[in-house]
Amino acid sequence: QVQLLESGGGAVTAGESLRLSCLMSGDRIGDYPMGWYRQELGKAREFVAAMNGAGGTAYYANSVKGRFTISRDNARNTVALQMNNLKPEDTALYFCNGVYLWTNEYEPRFPNWGPGTQVTVSA
Known about the structure:
This protein starts with a strand and ends with a strand. By secondary structure, it is mostly beta strands. Strands 2-10-9-4-5-6 form a 6-stranded mixed beta sheet, with no helix packed on it. Strand 7 and strand 8 form a beta hairpin. It contains no helices and 10 strands.
């Protein structure tokens, strides 16, 4: 049974950085492409970034290209998201999940989402 736990969020001002971490329990994270999603209250969840299972190939939403970097440490069962030059529009609850990469939809894999970690960026 896969469980996901996000951490690293916080409140920052525009231009600052945060690093989010995602810890998987119950399975080997290296068996899955993994990624990040974010969701503002009352709005639809959107894809942010993903990486293939072994690492080396990354995918990003246009809104975060050049600012965010996804990475993974499969030995520690973690995936990270380095978020630089944060903007107010990055404010959201951030979730990690497995990501299906064989379509252009970046659909999440696991039905049991973690609690997410809140990122709040003030102007």
